[in-house]
Structures are given as C-alpha cells and as structure tokens.
Amino acid sequence: MQFLKKHITELCFMLLLCGTLWGAVQLIVSGHIFNGDFALYIRQAQSIQYGDMQQVFSDMQEMIAHSTYQRYSPILYPWGYPLLLFPCVALFGINYFAFKIVGVICLVGAFIFLYYHPILSKERFRMSVLLVLALLTGNIFYWGYVNSVSSELPFFCFLMFSFWTMNKLYALKEQTEKRTILYIGLGILLFFTAQIRTEGYFLFISLIVLQWKNRLLGWRFFLPYASALCIWFVFTLVFPSGYTEHFEHFKVVTLTNLLHNIQTFYEYPAQILYIPFSLFNLFFWVNCLLGLYISSRKLTAESVYLVSTIMLLICWPYDVIRYWLSLFPLCFIFFIQGFRFMCMVWGKKAGKWVLYPIIGILICSVWKVSIKYATSPIQIYTTINPNVEGESAQEMYAFLRTNTAQDDWIACGESRSIYLYTNRLSCNISGEVSNLPANVNWYVEFLYRGSYLQYPHGVIRLNHNRFQQVFCNQDFAIYKILTP
C-alpha cells in the first residue's frame, strides 16, 4: 500500500502510455493516402542512401517551376525527418508500416519527456502534467497522426526532448566544466530539432532567454550556439537547402488572413476536446493566458517558444491544425495552471472540488470518443484520396514505368508521388489547356477529384484531339498528350 501511495502517479502515467500505444497501433493501416508531404520526405530519405541529394533538389526545382500551382511544396524539406526515415528506407525500402512505427515511438517518447520534464515533474506541477497527459494520450487527434508519414510527431518528440535537456542542464543556474560536452550536445540537439521543422529555431531564442534569466555568462554561454553553427556548416556542405524559398509564402499574407487565422486558432481547443460549446474556447484561452502569466518564470523556455511560434503561425498563410500538434501540450499545461489558480481562489479544498470534476469530465469525454473511433472499422481511403499501395494506384504506376521514357514529363495533381514511384519528372497542371507546358508528355487524371490540381473532367473530353486515353481503371485514367 505504501508503494502504491508513493508511485501512484507513475502507475497512472504507465497506464496512460499503454492506452496511447494501444490506440495508436490500433489505428495503423497499410499504405498511405495520396495527399500529403510523405512522398518528398521518403524521396529525400532515399537520396541519402543513393547519394543523389543534389539531383532531387534540381528535379524538384524543375517540377515546381513547371507546375500551375507552385506553393504546394518547398523545393526540399529540412533534412531532420528524412534522416530519421533513412534507416527504415535502407533496411526495408518503401515500407509504410516501418515509417508509422517511427511515428508511434516518437509519440510515446514525447509524452515520456513531458512527464519527466525537470520542472513539470516537481510537486507543484506533477498533478497538472498528469491531467494534461490524460487529455492528450487518449486523444484521437494524436493517435491519428501515426497514419501519416509527416514531421509532426518526430518534431513533437524532439521538441519535448529539447525542453527536457535545456531545463536539466540549466536547473542549477550555474555552468560547470563537467557539463561542457553537454552544452555542445545541446546545440546539436536544438539544431537537429529545427531541421525537422523550422519553427524549432525558436528554441535558440528560448535558450537565450533562459540563460539570461539565470544570469549565465562566460565562454560556456556560447557553446550551444557554436556547436549548432558548426553542425549547420557541415549540413550545408552535405545537404542542399530548398526550404528557405518557402518563406516567400509570407508575401501572400493579408490582414484578412491574419484575422482568419486568429479566429481559427481560437476555436481549436473545443475541436480537439470534442466540446460542442464554443464558449469553452473563451474559458480555455483566458485560463491559458493566466497560467502563462503565473508560470512563465518557472517555464521560461516553454513560454518563450509558445508565444513566438503562435505569432509565426498567425502570420503564416495556412491555418492547418497539425502545426499545433506540438503546441497543444504547452497550451494545456498553462490552461490547467491558470484554471487551478482560479479554483484555489475559493480555497484549496473547495478549489479541488471544482477543478478535478471538470477536468475529469473532459478526460472521460476524450477517451470515450477515441476508444469508440479506434474500435470501429477504420476507413481512411476514399475515391478522392485512394491508397498509394492500392491495386489501382500500383497498376497506374506500373503502366507509367513501363510505357514512359526516362526523360518524359508526367502531369498529375500528386506530382511528388509520381516522382517517388516512377522516377519521372512530374508537375500539376490546371486552368486553361492552352497553358499546357510543351514538355509534358503524359497526363494522369484522378477520376473522382474534380478540378483539384487538375483539369475538370469535361475539359479533357472536349479536347480529345490533345488527350488520347491509353489507360483507365477504377480510380485513374492516363492520357498520352498529342502535339496539336
């Protein structure tokens, strides 16, 4: 009994982790949807194995230049996630189950680093972080991302690892000679995290503020930045960078876009907690801001990172909820802290009777929805977004590999997957047929996608003198483009 009292939170945490593992693995399905960034991540991982990184850079540069819609992709993504996929690609080839297991490991790892955070694991925060983990480990929003070969879960894991390391190293508010190698390692860790997703560079701002708050000066102050700079120099020699041009997206940002992002982000808490009352969002953000105010001195690095990244996302022209995957844990920690503070105004005992029942209801609601979803038949593939490893997709790829020349261009709304599976250059085309690039030889049509990154079906039929159908199955049609 004494053991249970002493280790009750650890036992609860282990149960939550088991629930996460069960839910995440339960949702894994074979293959992958066509839409997404997966194809370029995998191709970049292959290029590490084959040593053709520069060729992939040149190919993607051409593919984007010839596409009608050019903001669908950077030339290359940062190399952190491809490096994580590289062992799987080298050992198993294109194996989506292996890629998804990497996601499961990263999800579990992120929750472990969050629970054992040097500050959050202390008595003041222990119950708060356990409540946050109860809300997130059983959330279908997190489970569902194991089916996506994308950088969100790896970044979440390395972000939590970075916070754990920063707070562990600087908890004593002094820099010792014995830790010199650890300061160097911290710089490498922060740089690698930023190479998974570029918002990770805000970690360096968090580190500066953390060092300044603890009054840490001297030559060891610069070690993390010096090591990060050295590894950046090595990276630039080995890996071509194609992500910086992605920041040209800021050129399309307008005031309307900013206001739309703020409104969209405001509504996220109720969405991921499956609460039908929009008033909950106001309740959440008020408590989150209060928690941020009262906890920022203890959670300095986390506060700086959260505020900096939210400001970036407000200015970013896309309101995609997956960008928030690594931010929600921080938001929820501050929300719990703020709500707890408000409840304790009524007295410690009375406050607990308000705090725990309300959070308990939220936890039960989240787990109920997630378990119901995980135990239901899983159907993520549709006629609009079929499986890249499905029979119809593989037939389409096989036809293209067999009947096209190496230097042929293939027009397709999912050009990166065509490039991955056929090793042919590809671009998306839409709009007027008169704008069809002269170098394009083939056209792949998604039969059920309408005009999304492709010509409407009626346009193809009206221009039968330009498009000669040579292949068709239940999901795709392939046309040979004829010279007028």
Number of helices: 20
Residue-averaged pLDDT:
90
Query: How do the SSEs run, as a string of H and E?
Result: HHHHHHHHHHHHHHHHHHEHEEHEE
Uncertain regions spanning at least 5 consecutive residues: none
Rg from alpha-carbon coordinates: 25 Å
Tell me the number of structural domains.
2
Secondary-structure topology with pairs:
Elements: H1 2-27, H2 38-50, H3 53-65, H4 80-92, H5 96-115, H6 123-137, H7 140-143, H8 152-169, H9 180-196, H10 202-213, H11 223-238, H12 255-266, H13 268-272, H14 279-295, H15 300-315, H16 328-344, H17 348-374, H18 391-403, E1 409-411, H19 415-422, E2 425-427, E3 440-446, H20 457-462, E4 467-472, E5 476-481
Parallel strand pairs: 1-2, 1-3
Antiparallel strand pairs: 3-5, 4-5
Helix pairs in contact: 1-5, 1-6, 2-4, 2-19, 5-8, 6-16, 6-17, 8-9, 9-11, 10-15, 14-16, 16-17
Protein name: Glycosyltransferase RgtA/B/C/D-like domain-containing protein
Organism: Bacteroides caccae
Keywords: Membrane, Transmembrane, Transmembrane helix
